[in-house]
From TrEMBL:
It comes from Danaus chrysippus. Residues 1-16 form the signal peptide. Keywords: Signal. It comes from the Eukaryota. This is (African queen) hypothetical protein.
Length: 120
């Protein structure tokens, strides 16, 4: 009985090591090349607009991913996050500032996040 409990606990812990990979095939290049879609994602993330199912799914883990430098992100999610931030910082400067204020108001997390996802 103890073995079953320990194995169950290990299974739960191992499944919590990464975020769900269901959107890992997301075409981030399509998103960042479409200003309207990119703006809609940012509006969702920045609480300026409604979230659709996909942007809402990303948003639910966004704060934790920023604060923990994407520790639970899959490699695909790190790539998506990297490309998203690269483009937003250049093309949507004002929205990026809002993003910073919401997810890193004390400027403690984004540098570590960017370092953690740099190679992706």
């Amino acid at each position: 009985m103890k073995v079953i409990i320990v194995l169950s606990a290990l299974l739960v812990l191992s499944s919590a090591e990464t975020y769900s990979a269901e959107n890992d095939d997301f075409d981030v290049e399509k998103l960042v090349s479409d200003p309207a879609s990119l703006g809609a994602f940012l509006d969702c993330f920045n609480d300026k607009g409604a979230c659709d199912e996909l942007s809402g799914d990303f948003k639910k883990d966004l704060r934790e991913a920023v604060e923990e430098a994407c520790k639970k992100c899959t490699d695909a999610q790190k790539h998506i996050f990297k490309r998203f931030l690269e483009v937003v910082k250049v093309q949507k400067v004002d929205d990026y500032k809002i993003f910073q204020q919401i997810y890193d108001p004390e400027n403690k997390y984004l540098s570590a996040l960017e370092a953690a996802i740099a190679k992706y």
